[in-house]
Amino acid sequence: TIASADMDLNQLEAFLTAQTKKQGGITSDQAAVIAKFWKNHRIKIHESLINQSRWDNVLKNMNWRVDLKSQSRHIDQINTPVAIVEMELGKNGQESEFLCLEFDEAKVNQMLKKLSEIEESITLL
């Protein structure tokens, strides 16, 4: 419970106090040991839980640039700007995969709209 909630020190103290007052709960000595352990290892435990909950690759790096098309099947697309996005995907300790995407102005606007919707959803949560 402590790790999944990523409790800060105030939350931890309140939680452990409640556990000591519970019928069949922990002793105050046990609460002190748990609190000391959590204070010393909180970051490691949290990172371990995050790594265990991932089942797929993660975004390790991303680069982008804007180019002008110099060649195209259609003459009206020459000298139009395109965004090139390069992403490095993988898990720690494993070889990375690289993904390269090309967006025209309409696709960039669509992507920005979708990212804005994601941001709004996260903010609501």
Automatic annotation (TrEMBL):
CDD domains xrefs: Commd1_MURR1
InterPro entries the UniProt entry points to: COMM, COMMD1_N, Murr1
Cellular component, GO, one term: endosome
Taxonomy, superkingdom: Eukaryota
A Gene Ontology BP annotation from the UniProt entry: negative regulation of protein localization to cell surface
Coiled-coil residues: none
Pfam families: COMM_domain (PF07258), COMMD1_N (PF17221)
Domain COMM: 58-125
Assigned protein family: Belongs to the COMM domain-containing protein 1 family.
Name used for this protein in its record: COMM domain-containing protein 1
Taxonomic source organism: Pelecanus crispus (Dalmatian pelican)
